[in-house]
Design goal:
The structure is a homotetramer. Chain A is of the alpha/beta class. Chain A folds into two domains: about 160 residues, Rossmann fold, CATH 3.40.50; about 180 residues, Dihydrodipicolinate Reductase, domain 2 (2-Layer Sandwich). Helices cover about 30% and strands about 20% of the residues of chain A. In chain A, the strands form three sheets. Chain A has a six-stranded parallel β-sheet, with helices on both faces. In chain A, helix 6 crosses helix 8. Chain A is globular.
C-alpha cells in the first residue's frame, strides 16, 4: 500500500544535478520507476554538457533506463535547468555555489553534498527520524529571501548509524557513541579508489569523513524548537575505514545512555520501532525501516545491505558492552539509503507536506 | 647483530605439533633458516600420521623447505615425539590433552592454543612486554610436578593490540580500551572461511574471539609478583570482524588512561619504545618492535603488516579521542607476529634465560 | 506477455532434491514466484532430513521465501517424496542412484547432475537450442520401462557457451572450438572454494570440468533423428579456470566454421537470433536469449551476467581470429541460467508439450 | 654463484626515467641491492621534477630504499640526466621522443615502452631466449648515427608466454598459438584500474594489449641473420583479460608445432631447458628460468609468480590439446619478470658483453 500521489495523475518533472556520477546514476535508476516524479533534465559539469546522456555517462550497473539515454546533458545552471524539484548529486565544491543559486531561483534542492548540512537554517533530514526539522524551510526562506530551499540528507555512513540509533536514543537518551565504520568503495564514486590500493587490504582512513560522523548525528537527533535545532547532547568518536566491499557501509557501535537499557529492552526498542512517518506510506519508505537480525554473524553488507530493500538498515549483534552500556553492528546501502534514495524519500515527505506545490 | 647461540655451534632439535596446518606450515618456514633450532619431527593428527610431510601438507605459499619434505609425520604423542622443545600449532581441542601430556613428559611446549593461556600458572608471554612472566614456569612446575612446561603466546589479534598498547600503558596507565578489529582470513586457517562468505563483504563476527581480546591484555600487561600475575586494572570492549584480507589483523583502538597523555606525549612514548629485550638481540626480535607511521592512511595490513619484517607491529593515526583520551590504528601479521613467530621468539627468550637447557 | 498456464488456475506441486545447497536454494527462490509451479516438498541428505528447512539450510542471499521456511526436509526417496515433478540439485554421486529411482517411480526428474547427461536416451536440453531432443523421453521410457523420465540441463559453463554458439553453428557450421573459461566461485557451491585459495588469485583448474565442456556441446548442437542424437561434428578444446567472482561464468571462444563468416555476418546472426521457442512465451524464457554488446570491454560477469535478467547470455568482442575464423567473449549467470533457471525452463517446455500431464 | 662484476669494485651509476610510477618504483627497489649498478638519478614528469623523490613518489609496497629518498627528481632530459645507463619506465607516449633523445646523447636506454619494440633495428630482448639479437645494437647505431642505443624488453604478458614457449619452439617448431591471458591489476599501474571496475569481476579487454601479444613473440623467437631479425613463422591469436589479482599474469596456451610432440617430450623439453645464458650466472638471472609444476591446480599467480624468485616463469598443466597439439598454463610476475627485472637482466647481459663500457 503506497500513498496516493499528492500530484494527482501527473508525474512531476525533476532535474538531477551531477547526473553522470555514481550517485547521479542511482538517482536516474531509482526515479525511472517512480510513481510521482519523472526525470526531465540531467545536468553535469561543463565537460559533459551538450552530450547525449548515454554518451556522457559511463553507466555502471545493469541497464540504463531508456527514457534518459537521449536527454542532452545541461550545465548546472538555474537559467537552463528550470524544474522546481532538483536532486543534487554534486560534490561539495560544486554544490557550494550551485545549490544556493538554484534555491534563489526558486528550486527545491534535495542535496547529498556536505556543504550546507550543518548550516543553522538548513534541514538535515531523515524522514523516519526528524521530519519536523522541515520546519527549518520557513526559517531558511525568511533568512535568505529565497523562493526555493535547500534540504539535505546526511553523509552515507551517518544515515545508517543514526537510523540504528534513533530508537535507542528516543527510549534511553544517548550520551556517548563510539563508531568504527567499514565502508564500501562505491562511497568514493568512480574512479574513486584505485584497485591497487584496496584489493585484499583495508585503508584505515577516509578523508574528511570522521568529522561528519562526529557532528551530523547530534543535529539529526536534535530538537527543533520552531526556530532552530538544538543539538542532542551526546559525544561521538569515529574511526572510518575503507574495505574491499562494493556497496554497504557497516559500523560497529558502542554506546552509553542516560538510562542504562537491558539488552532485551534495547532489542524491544529496535524491533518495535516504525519511525515517524510509517502512516504516510511514502513510495520509497522501507517497512519497517530497521531489520533486526538474530544470527550471530549478521548483518553483512553484501547479504543484507545490498540485497532486498536497499532502503532498510540492518542491525544485529545487540549485546551489552563491558565499557559503555550497549553495542551492536549496523549496515545499510550507502548509495541507496545513504544517498539517492535518501533524497528521494526527503522529496516524498516534502510532497505530502505540500512543500513541493507549484512543482 | 644477533645474539650468539646459547647452544654453541649445534642447532637444537625441535618438534612441531599440528605441522600440516596454516600455522604449522609457518613454523616450518620460519624455522628452516633459524640459527639456533632445527625441525627434526613433524607431528599432526592420526589422519596425516605415517605419511611423508610433503604429501600430508597442502603447502600454501612459496616453496616447502627441502629438509622437511621427506620427514614422516608422527602422531602428537610424547612417546614418539621426543624433542625437548616442542612448538604447538594444535587447535584448542587437541591442545587440551596433548600439551599437558608433553609437559609432563618433560617437553617445553610453546603453544599457540587458547587452552592454557589464562591458567594462573601458565605464562602468557610477549618477550618485549612481560618477559618476567616467565617466572611462572617455576610456579607451574612446582604446582603440577612437571619436568617440562607450557608457555603460551596470545591470540593473534591480542598480540598486535598489546604491543601497540604497551608503551602507552607503561607511561600513562591504561584504564579503558575499545578495540574494533578487521581480521584476515588466514586467521581462520585452511580451508577456514568459505570464499562465498567473505569475497566482497565483511563478517561482523568471529566465533570465540571477543572474549580473548577482552581478557588476555589484562594478563599480558599485568604484574608478576613472584607467585602469580596480578591483572592490569583496565576494562576492554571488543568488536571483531572478518574482512577479505589475506594476512594482517588491523585494529582501531580508543583508550583512556590514568594520566591523560597529550598526543605528542603518546607519539613520543610509541616512537621511543624499544621493549624489554632489545639488548638481548634475539634472532627473531624485530628492531624496533613498533613502526610509527605519519601518513594519514597508514598503517595497512597488506602494505605494512605483510611487507618487510613481519614481526613488527605498525601504528598510525595517533590522535585525540573526543570520547576517551586517545585513538590509533595498529596492524600486525597474524600468522608471523601473531602465531608462529611469536612462539619462536618466546623460545629464544627461554633459551637465553637457560630454560631450554638439556634441550 | 507470458504463456497461459497449461495447468489452468492451479499451481503444480513440485519437489526439490538437494534443496539445502547453493543450487537448491536458487530453485526455492526462483520457484517462490513461479506462476505454474509451487514447491511442496524439500528433500536433502540424511543429515538434514527431519529438520525445518529454515534450520537445515544456511540461506545465502536475501530473504528466504516464507512458504518454505517451515517445510520439514525429507529424505531423497521416492517413497516419501511423491510429487510428479522433481527438480534435482543433487551432486552427481547422489544423483546416480536417486534420479533413476524417482524416474522409475513415475517422476519427471529435471536434473542438474552430470550423471546422465551424456546417456544415449537422456535429453540434454536447452529449450532455445534443441527442444526436439525431448523426443528422447519416449525412447528413454521404452528402453527403461519407466513411467517417469530424466531430463538434464548442461554444465553451468557449457550452457552459456552453447547459447552463444548456437546462432553461429546454425548459420555457418561449427568445426573447431577453443574455449577458455573464467568461472565464478558459486559454481563450486558452499563451502566450496576456500577463501585463502582464491582471494586475489586464479586457480587454473576445475576438477572434472574440462571433459564436460569438451563433450556436452556436441550433443546439445547434435541432431535428433527420432531415435537418437547424432553428435555435431566439431572438436572442442577447453581450459577452465576459477576466478574471484561471485556469480557469472565467462568464456573466451575462438572458432572455425564450415563456412567462414564475415564479422558482420556473425554479428547479424547473433543479433537476429531468437531461439527455437520464442513464440511459446514461457515464463522463464529470456527475451531475447542473447544480448550482444558493442562496448569493447563488455560483457562482464558482475555488470552483465549478474544484473538484469539472469537467464540471458551476454556476448561481446565479436571479431575475426587470426588463427581460426572468429572469436568472442560470452558470460552468463552460472546458477540461474546455468543451473536452477535452466531446469525450470526445461520444465516449462515439457509442460506446454504435455509431458507433465497428470502432474 | 654469481658472475664477478665486469666493472670491478665500483657500482655503475644509472638513471631511472619514469621513476615515480609502479614500474619505476620496482626499478628503485630491485636496484637498491644490485651488485653492479646504483641509482644516482631519478627522473620523471615535469609535475614531479624538483621535488624530493620521497615526496614525489607515492610508494606502494614495503619500505622505500633509504638512498633514493633524498634524491631530487629530474626532468627526463639528457641535458640533466647524464648517466650512461638509463632504465626507462616511461609510458609509450613519453618514450617516443625521450628515448631516442637519450640514445642520441650517448645513453644505453633499457626500455619497457612499446614504442620501439617492433622497430627493425631495435633489439627486443629476453637474455635466456635471444641474446644474439643484441647484434642489432650495431645495426641501430650505424643506421641512426647514435653513440647510445635503445634496447627493449617485451610486453609484460608476452615475456612470460615466450619464456614458456621457447623450449618448445626450439625443440618442435611453433606453428600456431592461441593465448588467453588473465592479467593482474598492477599491469595497469597506479591509479590504473578503478576498484569499482574490477573488484569481484573480470574485464575481458585490455586496451592495445592483444596486438602486442600477437606480434612480439614472432620477433622474440625470430632469427638474427647479422642484419635483421627474421620473424618466426607462426600465427598467434590472443584474448587478454583483466582479473582481480595484484601481481602475476597468467596465460592459457594452446599450440601446434611443425613436429607434434608427445606430452612427455614436451615436459622433458621444458624441464631440461636452461636458456642461453645459464653459464653467465648473471645476478638477476633465475635458475632455472622455468619451474615446471606437477600439481593439477598449479601454477597460480599469487602462490607461484608472486612468491619466491619473481624472475622465474611457472608452467603447469602440460597436456595434449584435442584441437591443436599441446596446451599448458604459465604465469610470471608482470612487474619483475615482465618489466623492471627484465630490463635489469638485459643490462647485465650487455655489461658482460662489453656493451656498457665507459659507463
Amino acid at each position: 500500500m503506497t500513498a496516493p500521489s499528492p500530484f494527482g495523475g501527473r508525474r512531476v518533472p525533476v532535474a538531477v544535478l551531477g547526473a553522470t556520477g555514481t550517485v547521479g546514476q542511482l538517482f536516474i535508476r531509482l526515479l525511472a520507476d517512480h510513481p510521482w516524479f519523472t526525470v526531465t533534465t540531467v545536468a553535469a559539469s561543463e565537460r559533459s554538457a551538450g552530450r547525449r546522456y548515454a554518451d556522457a555517462a559511463r553507466w555502471h550497473e545493469g541497464e540504463m533506463p531508456g527514457e534518459v539515454a537521449d536527454l542532452v546533458v545541461r550545465r548546472c545552471d538555474p537559467a537552463v535547468v528550470r524544474e522546481r524539484v532538483v536532486f543534487s548529486a554534486l560534490d561539495s565544491a560544486a554544490a557550494l555555489d550551485a545549490e544556493p543559486a538554484f534555491a534563489r531561483a526558486g528550486a527545491i534542492v534535495l542535496s547529498n553534498a556536505k556543504s550546507y548540512r550543518m548550516a543553522d537554517d538548513v534541514p538535515l533530514l531523515i524522514p523516519e527520524v526528524n521530519p519536523d526539522h522541515l520546519g527549518l524551510v520557513d526559517v531558511q526562506r525568511q533568512a535568505r529571501g529565497w523562493d526555493g530551499a535547500i534540504v539535505t540528507n546526511p553523509n552515507c555512513s551517518t544515515i545508517n548509524i543514526v537510523l540504528a540509533l534513533a530508537p535507542l536514543h528516543q527510549a534511553f537518551g544517548l550520551r556517548r557513541l563510539l563508531a568504527v565504520t567499514m565502508q564500501a568503495i562505491s562511497g568514493a564514486g568512480h574512479p574513486g579508489v584505485a584497485s591497487l590500493d584496496i584489493l585484499g587490504t583495508v585503508i584505515p582512513y577516509i578523508g574528511d569523513e570522521e568529522p561528519k560522523v562526529e557532528t551530523e548525528p547530534q543535529k539529526l537527533l536534535g530538537t527543533f524548537d520552531g526556530e532552530r535545532v538544538v543539538m542532542a547532547p551526546f559525544v561521538t568518536s569515529a574511526h572510518t575505514n575503507r574495505v574491499p566491499v562494493r556497496h554497504g557501509h557497516t559500523a560497529c557501535l558502542s554506546m552509553s545512555f542516560d538510562r542504562h537499557p537491558h539488552e532485551s529492552e534495547a532489542l524491544a526498542a529496535l524491533r518495535g520501532w516504525r519511525g515517524a512517518i510509517a502512516e504516510l506510506h511514502l513510495p520509497t519508505a522501507p517497512t519497517p525501516p530497521l531489520v533486526v537480525h538474530e544470527a550471530p554473524d549478521r548483518p553483512q553488507p553484501l547479504r543484507d545491505a545490498d540485497a532486498g530493500d536497499r532502503m532498510q538498515v540492518h542491525v544485529g549483534r545487540v549485546r551489552p558492552d563491558p565499557l559503555l552500556d550497549l553495542r551492536l553492528v549496523c549496515t545499510g546501502h550507502n548509495v541507496v539509503r545513504g544517498a539517492a534514495g535518501a533524497s528521494i524519500l526527503n522529496a516524498e515527505l516534502m510532497a505530502v507536506r505540500g512543500l513541493l506545490a507549484d512543482a
